[in-house]
Amino acid sequence: MITVRGLYKDFGENDEIKVLRGIDEHIKKGEKVVIIGPSGGGKSTFLRCLNRLEEPTGGEIWFGNECITDKKCDINRLRMKMGMVFQHFNLFPHKSVMENITLAPIKLLKLPKEQAEKEAMELLAMVGLADKASAYPSQLSGGQKQRVAIARALAMKPDVMLFDEPTSALDPELVGEVLNVMKKLAHDGMTMVCVTHEMGFAKEVATRVLFMCDGKIAESGTPEELFSNPQNPRTQQFLQSIL
Amino acid sequence: MNNTKKKKKLLTTKNVFFALVALAAIVFAVYVIIAQSLAMKVTKELTIDDAKAIVEEKIAELPKEQAESASFLAENIKVDVKNVEKSEKKSFIVDCEIETLDLYDIVSQNIDRYFGLAHEYEQKRTEEGQLMKPNSTLIRQNIVDDFNKDIEQAEKSNKRIVIKIFEISENNYQLYYTDEVINAIFGDYRKAVELINNAETCTIEGKEVSIKNNSTYKNGIIECFTLNNYEKNVEPDPSIPAVKWLNSVKDSFERNFLEKDQGRPRYMYIVDGIKNTILVTLASLFIGIIIGFIVAVIRVTNDTTGALDFGAWICKLYLSIMRGTPLMIQLLIIYFVILLPAGVGSVPSAIICFGLNSGAYVSEIVRGGIMSVDKGQMEAGRSLGFNYIRTMYHIVLPQAFKAVLPSLANEFITLLKETSVAFYIGVADLTLGGLKIRSITYSSFMPLVAIAIIYLILVLGLSKLVSILERRLRKGDNR
């Protein structure tokens, strides 16, 4: 479903900060890929390159049979098929929960308002927030905000969901409710790419775990392989330090 | 607990302030009423004899200088007071019978003779070879003896008149001479003057002579009995200064706002001015917001993505010009140099100028607002599939607008006040309305303070509207 070939990304005025240094990866439909690694390793940048929120410096990304990195491709159309959930939720504070979820379906998919709201209610029921439809983001807790953000991304019926550290900004007791929604999503067969520090979640849900370090994918494998028998010394070191 | 709360609430600084102001106003009002009613009371009642003495004395004082005949007449008037009645405004109404001469009768019977005397004198002078033109004083000197004899011999008659006596202070009185009173005392004095002034011909030595335009003769005769210095029609006002001031304010108000020019009361200048000021402000505000948002979006896009280089350059040029030159110079240039030759009127020109000017300031405000919106908002919108412009429109700009609303309100208030320079290009706005009234009445206080107050009310109203709008937009913020 997503194929990445030789992806490079440099930051800075003269591209002196090399964040991604050649990534090759293939994510199949239905896979739940969890990306772990030390901070500064390029995890988030890699994820953000997948829907071109960051412009790659080099390499190709294919989504289905379309090249995302091609300047001529209609990136806005492709983004509709790639839901994204952010670390800081990024809900629209001037709109109610319902409006947050229905804005894109109504404006972009041209759904009638009634239908969009019906679907939004279903999504809110799925994330357990059916009673918050008319609330404003400022009235919600962090966990509730993130669940709304997930519902918002799902409202566009994406083929793949990208999670950029979805629980990092949450109080510890709120992490569980968000992870539960993500687990439910995984069980329903959604293709997911998730940057996270929740090793428990990775062990339970992931079909594959990527360990990223120094702008490269240092190691890749099933959770069992990677957590119980890491091959790369960097992976060993990282796992030791967090477990 | 509840009780103490209530007591505390009553004693706020604001309430105390208003209570003191109200108290001061009441004390002042009571003082004015008492002082005014005291000022209106006479200190001493007048008996009939007192009144008679005063009236006779004052009438005798009436003619000054010149008119010996009038003096003679005044000194010989007999007054018989029938009744004295106290009146309001520190005065008495004296009902009296006076014995006086009918001046009109004397003049109408002898007018030909007087003109004859004047003419005779003129002839004599010409024969003597005096080339200097005669003046009315010389003519009078020649006639006055004759005239006085006529008066002395004339028969007197009785007239019933009402005279008002004012008490200026204790034992100091003043008569109020209306034209009617003067006319009655001096036996149809006005009619006599009129008769002489209107004379067209007279018979001199059996011949008809035209004297229609001979003002020298006429004035000479009139001066024999003229009354120059009576205080006419000015009723003394014993009111206390506060009341006098209030009355003068009332008069000034009426003169500046209520009097009519060609059937239109003067306040209409201000009403029309308000309409134009509001029209110019709202229209240029509308233009300013549109320009401001467009310029802001172009500049932010250029800053964040590097696109639209040329557009951003144009915007910067526009900003430097609009913010770097005085508004009034812009107004004069836009109207007199650019738009007037193109046949555009002053109101549309003012709207365009103020719109362009305010657009420059609004754009900087909005740019700050857009930059204050979290970067994540743009990313969230883009990640859902909205393009840059639509994300701006649906997500970033509404938040930016809310953030900059107080600054925008400030800008609009400034704009409302700045439109007052529009009168320079002849826009009949509020300022010009006030200045027009000032040029008619020559009074500055009323019209200028009035337009200042109206501007203040407009600004306060606008602030109120903005705070309502702000409260409605804030509904997403309550925590």
Topology at a glance:
The complex is a heterodimer of chains A (243) and B (479).
Chain A lengths: L1 E10 L5 E11 L4 E5 L6 H8 L7 E6 L2 E2 L7 H6 L1 E4 L11 H12 L4 H14 L15 H13 L5 E5 L7 H16 L3 E5 L3 H7 L2 E6 L2 E6 L1 H6 L4 H10 L1
Parallel strand pairs in A: 3-8, 3-9, 6-7, 7-8
Antiparallel strand pairs in A: 1-2, 1-4, 4-5, 9-10
Helix pairs in contact in A: 3-4, 3-5, 4-5, 5-6
Chain B lengths: L1 H9 L2 H27 L8 H14 L6 H8 L2 E10 L3 E11 L1 H26 L7 H18 L2 E14 L2 E5 L2 H7 L3 H10 L2 E4 L2 E4 L4 H8 L18 H18 L1 E2 L2 E2 L1 H39 L3 H16 L2 H13 L6 H27 L2 H10 L3 H31 L11 H12 L3 H29 L6
Antiparallel strand pairs in B: 1-2, 2-3, 3-4, 5-6, 7-8
Helix pairs in contact in B: 3-4, 4-6, 5-6, 5-8, 5-9, 6-9, 11-12, 11-14, 11-16, 11-17, 12-14, 13-14, 14-16, 15-16, 16-18, 17-18
Describe, in plain words, how this protein is organized in 3D.
The complex is a heterodimer of chains A (243) and B (479). Chain A has 243 residues and is α/β, with parallel strands linked by helices. Chain A contains nine helices and ten strands. In chain A, strand 4 (58-63) and strand 5 (66-67) form a beta hairpin. In chain A, helix 3 packs across helix 4 (113-126), helix 3 packs parallel to helix 5 and helix 5 runs parallel beside helix 6. Chain A starts with a strand and ends with a helix. Chain B is an alpha+beta fold and 479 residues long. Chain B has two domains: 48-238, no CATH class; 265-478, MetI-like fold (Orthogonal Bundle), CATH 1.10.3720. In chain B, 67% of the residues lie in helices and 11% in strands. Chain B contains 18 helices and eight strands. Chain B has helices at residues 2-10, 13-39, 48-61, 68-75, 103-128, 136-153, 179-185, 189-198, 215-222, 241-258, 267-305, 309-324, 327-339, 346-372, 375-384, 388-418, 430-441, 445-473; strands at residues 78-87, 91-101, 156-169, 172-176, 201-204, 207-210, 260-261, 264-265. A four-stranded antiparallel β-sheet of chain B has the order 1-2-3-4. In chain B, strand 7 and strand 8 (264-265) form a beta hairpin. In chain B, helix 11 packs antiparallel against helix 12 (309-324). The mean pLDDT of chain B is 84. The chains are: A alpha/beta (243), B alpha+beta (479). The interface between A and B is medium-sized, with 30 and 24 residues.
